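> forwarded from #structure-qc
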């Protein structure tokens, strides 16, 4: 079951996740809070998360899982340094295992719009973690980043991602056709939610920490 709006972790790294525009961030360096729900904590990744990331099925199947996990972590740390925000680690509270990641791969400050994505490793699905993560992102997006609209894009044949979007309160807007989808032959579907329609689910109490998570000096690129 696939809960990633942008596909697997390696594909997300190469194509989808790095869509934040550097020019826009010259005057919009965001603060990345720690988010809490009943079941998960969303926090910045740390160097010690390398082993947990390498165990994700999509990365574990790579020729060199350690290198693939490090590539992902290096990307995260670079985003934190340059823009103040990047992928959140999704950490389960019951086991403290890093079950996936989520974030805003695209932000348009002029339009006050953000795009969300979410990846949950297969072994951690069917526990409501992805729904919690999206609701937490909606909360910080609308309340702290002052978005008026948040959207998500998924493949037309990915019924699980579509169900996740709808469960989180998003509405289907239409189909997207662009060069990327034309090459793969896959049609994309666009879902959205606006600030005035957003209401936090009763089973997902989200608390936003106003304090920045500590940045580790060991976050360096090699």
């Amino acid at each position: 079951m696939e809960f990633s709006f942008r596909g697997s972790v390696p594909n997300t790294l190469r194509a989808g996740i790095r869509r934040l525009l550097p020019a826009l961030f010259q005057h919009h360096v965001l603060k990345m809070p720690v988010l809490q729900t009943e079941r998960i904590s969303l926090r910045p990744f740390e160097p010690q998360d390398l082993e947990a990331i390498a165990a994700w099925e999509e990365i574990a199947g790579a020729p060199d899982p350690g290198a693939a996990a490090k590539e992902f972590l290096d990307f995260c740390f670079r985003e934190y340094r340059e823009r103040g925000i990047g992928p959140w680690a999704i950490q389960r509270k019951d086991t403290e295992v890093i079950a996936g990641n989520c974030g805003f791969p695209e932000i348009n400050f002029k339009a006050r719009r953000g795009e969300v994505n979410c990846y949950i490793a297969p072994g951690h699905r069917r526990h409501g973690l992805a729904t919690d993560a999206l609701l937490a992102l909606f909360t910080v997006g609308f309340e702290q980043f002052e978005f008026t609209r948040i959207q998500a894009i998924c493949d037309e044949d990915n019924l699980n991602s579509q169900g996740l979007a709808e469960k989180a309160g998003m509405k289907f807007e239409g189909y997207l056709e662009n060069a990327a989808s034309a090459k793969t032959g896959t049609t994309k579907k666009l879902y959205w939610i606006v600030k005035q329609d957003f209401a936090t689910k009763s089973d997902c109490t989200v608390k936003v920490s106003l304090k920045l998570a500590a940045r580790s000096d060991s976050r360096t690129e090699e």
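QC bot note: The two ends are 34 Å apart (CA to CA). Strands lie at 33-36, 40-44, 88-92, 98-108, 113-120, 149-155, 171-176, 188-194, 207-212.
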